[in-house]
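QA checklist item 7 of 12: single-chain prediction sanity check.
[x] sequence parsed
[x] length recorded as 274
[x] structure emitted
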Amino acid sequence: MTVRLFLVPEATVAQRISRAKQRIRASGAEFRMPPQEQRSERMVAVLHVLYLIFNEGYTASSGSALHRVELTAEAIRLTRQLRQRLPADGEVAGLLALMLLTDARRPARTRPDGALVPLAEQDRSRWDAKAIAEGIDLITETLTSTAVGPYQLQAAIAAVHAEAARAQDTDWPQVLGLYELLQVSAPGPMVTLNRIVAVAMVHGPAAGLRQLDAAQADPALAGHHRVHAVRAHLLDIAGEHEAAREHYRLAARRTLSIPEQRYLESRAAQLTVR
């Protein structure tokens, strides 16, 4: 599993692992079931790891393939097992719903040549209707029966997208409202970027660009290829095609994913010929 998923330098992760190994050796820790009072804290870490595995499978951080299906399938399998053992845990249910609703789009995310297709341009008839139905049922049930957590909020956002028959039918005010809640309960760099896109869809690209300028102060986002990609997208919507082209090119140079590189370069090329 690549350390790039944590949005911190590889050296930082290596230092954390080294310190953790030293603490394990010094404490004589053994593998055993944690005390009841520690299980909630441990479960947070378990769900986070499952989420990272799924994300790496859904959008590989490097290499020639966009998907690593073996990872998404394994993450879903393990989360199903966890759900069977903890049926009353809302966040386990939320994570499973999120995985199902997200993975349902996979058949439409690439063209026959492997090129990436963004959400707004996907053929929604190719989405996995069975997985969508299961995910929506799951998140609908858990939102009404348990305390709401970050994975449930993300699943609810995915459900809003899944329920829109066309991209232009997306309930962006609802998406923005859910991201506002997520920003409070589980802030993070990718939540920030996704919320900014929702802001732009509701209030216009200029509002999104202003917030993107402020967000770049976060060290985790400074220079990240997704910041350039979002900026390019918003500039394109705003009609600033030359600036958008440059940021698409910057994003393409900074990502290690070949399908993402090709998509970003193709967007820049399309703006060149306008």
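[x] summary fact logged: Confidence is low (pLDDT under 50) at residues 1-5.
[ ] second reviewer sign-off
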